[in-house]
Amino acid sequence: MIQLTNRQARQFLLLKHGLLGEYQFIGKQGILDFVRQVGCIQYDPIDVCGKSAELVLQSRIKGFTKNMLGELLYKDRFLIDYPDKNLAIIPALDWPYFDRYRQAARQHSKRYPEMEALTEQVRTHIQNHGAISSDDLKLDGNFAWRSAIHWSGGNNVSRSVLEQMYSTGELIIHHKKGTRKYYDIAEKYIHPNLINAPDPLESDLEHHKWRVLRRIGAVGLLWNRASDAWLNIWGLKAEQRNEAFRQLLHEARIVAVAVEQMKDILYCRVEDLPLIEVVQQNPEPESRCELIAPLDNLMWDRKLINQLFGFDYTWEIYTPALKRKFGYYVLPLLYGESFIGRAEVIAERKTGTLVVKNIWYENGVKPTKQLRIALDNCFQKFAVFNGCETVSAEFMN
After folding, report:
1. Fewest CB within a 10 Å sphere: which of 8, 11, 123, 219?
2. CA angle 247-252-253, nearest 5°?
3. Cβ-based neighbour number of residue 281 at 10 Å
4. Would 296 be classed as within a structural domain?
5. Rounded to an integer, what distance in angstroms lies between the CA atom of residue 249 and that of residue 59?
6. CATH number of 128's domain
7. Which pTM was predicted?
8. Interatomic CA distance for residues 50 and 70, integer angstroms
9. 3-state secondary structure of 105
10. Which of 134, 155, 189 is the last residue of a domain?
């Protein structure tokens, strides 16, 4: 078992995520390298100051622009929109590993015989007109339906059929306009070697092991206990998770990590051991100031973040306004090896202004001259990312 101090564990996590010291990930290739490292990044359509996946990448990728992600998804097709940890973006190379879900969706659709005629209408429409959204196609139908993967079909038959065809793998998301998804035939864009590949993992156990290992890599350090980091892994209850951990340890694919003053044992992937050796030498990496996405991979287990960093974060977007402690869309604020607070930032694109509505510092954090310079640089970079020319700090006006 590896022994780490609290600081070493924090350094390990931040270095692994490319959030400490010099930028490790650069440009489009850096995006691809990072997504392959973490397996998936969560997608969320809400755009107050950038969509969730874009927020994850802007904090890590030197020179990141939103167009880069769009190109990797909808031009190069190296990345793909696909359910993983809820709505997500994954490497296209991982397509075969989710075949069991597509097979389940195909079985699910057999319960709705009326679906076949509707799917044939969709095929014909796409053949004649190209990629479509649910607004482009009006299908008639009246049946209770629920998608096999993630979405409720609701009362919009066109959307229900498109999402079901997406869940079976017949359609992929061709592109998005704002929050609207446009679908096209998957085999036109996914390489035949991938789209026709069988699931590489035959048993549920092997699949669970693959996904547990992938989620550990997505966060960096994780414990074997209930966690939001395991969301949307079908059939992974405590018993299955325990067995996956047991076998991964036996196969020497993960390593146990004890962190000072923490009761629970954490685990990291074996391929991350060189980074463990780096932090055991107690380096002094250069500090950066970054705004972190609410659904950032680093934040997937907020109890873990609280124990390691002493930072208690709740995303209050679904909290009634009168019960919020901070605000609707508030981002954790990272400086060096610590979360120093949180900030509410709004991109007012019509005026080209990034509005910093408020900053709430953690107890004991003093806004020194050095910190103010780092914050200013952070917000200026964030403004450029959002296409804003000026920064307005409302709380200082």
Report:
1. 123
2. 80
3. 7
4. yes
5. 32
6. 1.10.10
7. 0.94
8. 13
9. helix
10. 189
